[in-house]
Amino acid sequence: MLKVARVAAGYASQQALSDAIETAAPRLGLDVTVGVRQVRRWESSDPPWPSPELGRVLTHLLGLELEELGFTPPWATGERPAPARRAAIEGTAAAARLAAVPAGSTSAVQPASVGVDFGAVTRSHRRLYWSVAPAVLHPAVLEHTRLGCALLPQVTNACRRSVASALAESYLLAGRIEFFDLREPDQADDTLLRGLQAAGEADDPLLGAAILAHMAFIPGWVGQRDKAAERMVAARAYARRAPASAEVWAWLDAVEAECETRCGSPRTALNLIGHAEDALEAGSGDSTPTPVWMDWFSPVRLAAFKGNTQLRAGHLPQARTTLLGVLEDLPRTEDKQRSVIFGDLAAVEAAAGRPEAACEYAVRALDQLAITWYATGMDRVREVRRSLAQWQHTQCVRDLDDRLYGWETTVSALQR
Fold first, then answer.
1. Cα separation of 75 and 275, whole Å?
2. Where are the chain's structural domains?
3. What is the pLDDT of residues 147-162, one digit of tens each?
């Protein structure tokens, strides 16, 4: 488990973790050193319990308690105790048990049908995401992950893999809601790491790749390019372990392009998007199926990535054409994405010096957000409003402000 947490935290090698420990220790007021050999022992099947000082640095760097990292305390006599932190997500000892239960060590007390039944609820949550308010759906998904953690020690063999796979998908959905809908990146990072642990229990490398790529979004959106890049390297490594469809590879390109764009490298991002387009075209006859849970990506979604990147690169005519095409081709069910496209079109018009057109698209985005809330869409509108500062005394911007800061919109945004 330590290796999984190390890679997920952005430390691609044992040496990288060793270096990070020696860098972080002085900041915590500690004087400790550790070599690669010690990290290797920690990642063995029977890791020694770290000293208190080293244990403190490890939990600081990786964000997990020592028991969750696979260490057994020398005083342990039974089940490892669950940590008290993150009670809002775990809530019970069962939720922390995922990292402590070794594969194949359980005795089945549940029927084999449990895997199918648990997975059916996971699939229902996946579909509900596109229409149910995130603040309503999120608690239900978290409760479902608690159930999955409680069931995992009670099933064996194929059923165990089935439960673990559905549990990983549920953690992925919860992390997506926390990051994209609720704007809680730190919480999303922790949740996605638990999803990676569950994917490891299921031995599902494609789910692992998807989770790691989502984890790359978190540092990528705040300009931490190196950390995002390391997570993308890990995501691609996982994808290579299983047959991956052209859509999977194109989506990984799109995620990396988004991170590069946010980190100020739109030209690199456009090259990645071009590579993704080539991958989709070359794989049009590919028989490798795309996982059913990857319902957040399609050729039109790739075009949406492209339009935003063109906008940030300053290619305004191209961005306008691309985004209008996305708006025309977007399925009727893609309400969340529609608010983002309206926001990007508003940003194009603002950058082109057309405040009235920008305000018109921004209002359309707000109309859509009133139907289906999406924090990412609201972020786009707020970015546009900031870009309209030089026209803030015009009537169209004042009308936008009246709508953006109306009673209903303001209270709704603050509640969410």
1. 54
2. 1-71, 88-203, 323-416
3. 999 898 889 888 999 9
